[in-house]
Amino acid sequence: MNFSSKLLEDAVAEFAKLPGVGQKTALRLVLHLLNQDKGDVEKFSATISKLRNEIQFCQVCLNISDHTVCEICASPKRDHSMICVVEDTRDVMAIENTSQYNGIYHVLGGLISPMDGIGPTDLEVDSLVERVKSTEIKEVIFALSATMEGDTTLFYLDKRLKNFDIIISTIARGIAFGGELEYVDEITLGRSIATRVPYSNSLSK
Amino acid sequence: MNFSSKLLEDAVAEFAKLPGVGQKTALRLVLHLLNQDKGDVEKFSATISKLRNEIQFCQVCLNISDHTVCEICASPKRDHSMICVVEDTRDVMAIENTSQYNGIYHVLGGLISPMDGIGPTDLEVDSLVERVKSTEIKEVIFALSATMEGDTTLFYLDKRLKNFDIIISTIARGIAFGGELEYVDEITLGRSIATRVPYSNSLSK
Question: What's the predicted TM-score (pTM) here?
Fold first, then answer.
């Protein structure tokens, strides 16, 4: 694209670095910002800069937080003997939205993915093992994506944790609630038959 | 969504104000920025702020520019007797990319749209009339979208300009090059039959 202004070109180039944003979308976003009040754009710019410079991560669960210990880890109402291991902060938000979990979390910061060059040392694995070793943990629940990377991470973490006197569990996999059988993919359906559970166990407590 | 951090929430809210960006996309973009180096995010933030504060508009054609008169208007190689009227800077870029036009431009800054409360006084109409009146213009070419708003704007501008001794033209409408007849919409096909041109005229000069 031929830009009539270097400033415009630079701004479009910066936006186009964002995931899923191409040159045309970037240009649309930049022209939108140009139509806004100077104050609004200044606020946009300042908020992003402030976020990156002032953001903290909870010292316990490593979730994004405004404090050194996040609200969940600091809450006496939560069950501190149960750790739910997730990939990133979006998963914490998703689980919190269900209101079905009252324990605390551990944010790995990614999943093991040899293809992307991400190994166990790039993730918060040692800190998880340390937490299990030094605090009163009874159960570690893995809530990881049902993908190759998720399964690899699960396999590795299970090996690291199996010698501790804790219950290791993983969130249930199977057909989704409200899902019609004929539309479920073969692998999910096949696995959900193979890993069938007694009806009485399938009712949530 | 329940955010674990006010900083995160603010940043997501700012991104979600952009057109076509919802809460989930905004969160994805913000988490991407959080994974980048501080310097990169600072550059992103500074570029946007600089753009909004330092951008200029060409005094002649009102296109976005780094100078008081843009490169196109300042160029002695361009034909200054021909003005192409467009909606915004994206249209200038699109026409420049074709390399088929050697005249200068006039950027309206929008189209007349009563539905959105945009009238002629919100656009750069008077400055266009002034340019036609005070400079040596032989032809005004309208390159506006083939929409209701484009046609309304065209109708209005034609009324304002028709008493001047100039040629008023509009870019050709019809079936697109490479387009197969059976896939062309009815209105375009119908109009392209009604407004058929002698074969010799249809060949570009």
Answer: 0.79
